[in-house]
């Protein structure tokens, strides 16, 4: 009776890993959730990263090339996100518990810790972004008040995660879609007026030409595509935390792949469009939104619903911690994490996160390659052992490391000593990556190929209680 009294409601996420996850989310519930995650203030402020800027901040590709790179990167990232969504729907297991079946129980702790670190970072950055956008709307309130308010909203949403997902579907998604349409109409009107004025002066004075969206090269196309892909990939290690509540695998894949991709493309194109209006000055990226009629009111919709980004990060951090401590109550973890990211957001000022995205991609893109190969083509078809005593699978770990190495050789990133290390490796191998090489695609394919090639070296095991085709694993055993 005591154990039963602490169980979560039947239509809500379980409090601990030893409780079953209800299958209550349909296609539209999940589509609304992923669609909202695809529309972010980061899509506006981060649109600049798909222009492959140099160290001094100058874009290396044109706006047109950036839009194309963003669309390609987002579509590929959306498909990868869809692949990551299926295992959760089939097994009912959260993302980090699935890694017990892929790598083994104890080896899964390393990617779990990495995931916790990056989710705390993202959660902190989201609160900082919300506070910055809110102050752009109204600076009469101190920054700390906005941070604390965003932290409180985030924590409250995290206590009832499935209820929050359904709330997004019923109300927030409609408001966000209307806001997107409004800004497209307003910014298009402004751009037409500006272009007409420039055409007039060009005809009259035969001087200044129209701004050229094609100005710049396509040489950094795949760098820009990888930047967009990295944003999608950042959700890969948490996808199963939500799709384990999906009613069907098809709904999990379709909602993640399509729902997220469509809205991220729309948001990024709008961000690049706004960037063109401010002559590429990323520090003024919000100006076009705030200066149109009713712009501040409509922009407030984006600021308020940005909390769903931090909510997803905090909830998945709590679930990831449960892979290490299965019987920990996610409600207690959520409150503690909400306080933590609020304190960090008050203390820190994060200005550049392009290198952060690159580092995330270098770890989780090849991990997804290994997971997809083994889950759909390898031992996952028979069933993974996702119990706490699952044996280590060193062949899959080696395949993951191969993928990470391929990524770093093509794109060593900009993280100080780490970058220097891989540049030294490049020189020792006499390897110079070509501009057409995509670090994300090549590392994904290399990791998947390595997983299939190394499969015979792995230890054969039966489909324990946590099989990919079965209902639940003994996660808390």
Automatic annotation (TrEMBL):
The chain crosses the membrane at residues 32-51, 63-86, 144-162, 174-201, 221-240, 252-279, 285-304, 332-350, 356-377, 397-416, 436-454. It is found in: Membrane. The keyword Transmembrane helix applies. Keywords: Membrane, Transmembrane, Transmembrane helix. One of its GO terms (cellular component) is plasma membrane. The keyword Membrane applies. InterPro entries: CodB, Pur-cyt_permease. It is a multi-pass membrane protein. One of its GO terms (molecular function) is cytosine transmembrane transporter activity. Belongs to the purine-cytosine permease (2.A.39) family. This is Allantoin permease.
């Amino acid at each position: 009776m005591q154990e039963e009294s602490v169980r979560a409601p039947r239509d809500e996420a379980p409090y601990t890993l030893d409780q079953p996850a209800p299958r209550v989310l349909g296609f539209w519930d999940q589509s609304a959730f992923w669609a909202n995650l695809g529309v972010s203030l980061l899509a506006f402020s981060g649109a600049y990263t798909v222009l492959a800027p140099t160290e001094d901040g100058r874009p290396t590709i044109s706006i047109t090339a950036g839009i194309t790179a963003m669309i390609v990167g987002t579509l590929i990232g959306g498909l990868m996100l869809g692949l990551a969504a299926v295992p959760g729907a089939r097994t009912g297991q959260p993302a980090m518990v699935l890694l017990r079946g892929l790598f083994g129980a104890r080896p899964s702790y390393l990617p779990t810790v990495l995931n916790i670190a990056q989710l705390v970072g993202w959660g902190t950055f989201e609160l900082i972004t919300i506070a910055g956008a809110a102050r752009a709307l109204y600076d009469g309130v101190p920054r700390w008040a906005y941070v604390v308010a965003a932290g409180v909203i985030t924590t409250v949403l995290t206590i009832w995660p499935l209820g929050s997902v359904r709330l997004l579907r019923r109300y927030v998604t409609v408001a966000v879609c209307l806001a997107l349409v409004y800004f497209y109409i307003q910014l298009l009107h402004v751009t037409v007026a500006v272009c007409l004025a420039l055409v007039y002066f060009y005809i009259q004075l035969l001087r200044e030409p129209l701004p050229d969206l094609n100005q710049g090269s396509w040489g950094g196309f795949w760098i820009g595509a990888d930047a967009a892909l990295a944003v999608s990939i950042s959700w890969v290690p948490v996808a199963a935390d939500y799709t384990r509540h999906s009613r069907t695998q098809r709904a999990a894949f379709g909602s993640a792949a399509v729902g997220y991709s469509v809205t991220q493309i729309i948001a990024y194109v709008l961000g690049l469009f706004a960037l063109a209006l401010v002559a590429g000055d990323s520090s003024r990226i919000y100006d076009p939104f705030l200066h149109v009629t009713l712009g501040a009111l409509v922009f407030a919709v984006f600021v308020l619903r940005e909390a769903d980004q931090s909510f997803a990060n905090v909830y998945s951090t709590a679930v990831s911690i449960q892979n290490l401590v299965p019987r920990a109550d996610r409600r207690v973890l959520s409150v503690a994490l909400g306080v933590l990211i609020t304190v960090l957001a008050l203390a820190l000022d994060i200005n550049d996160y392009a290198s952060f995205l690159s580092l995330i991609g270098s770890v989780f893109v090849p991990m997804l390659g290994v997971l997809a190969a083994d889950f759909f083509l390898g031992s996952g078809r028979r069933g993974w052992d996702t119990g706490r005593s699952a044996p280590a699978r060193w062949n899959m770990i080696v395949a993951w490391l191969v993928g990470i190495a391929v990524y770093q050789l093509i794109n060593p990133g900009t993280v100080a000593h780490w970058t220097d290390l891989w540049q030294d490796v490049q020189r020792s191998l006499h390897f110079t990556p070509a501009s057409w090489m995509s670090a994300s695609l090549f590392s994904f394919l290399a990791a998947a190929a390595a997983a299939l090639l190394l499969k015979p070296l792995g230890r054969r095991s039966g489909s324990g209680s946590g099989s990919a085709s079965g209902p639940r694993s003994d996660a808390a055993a």
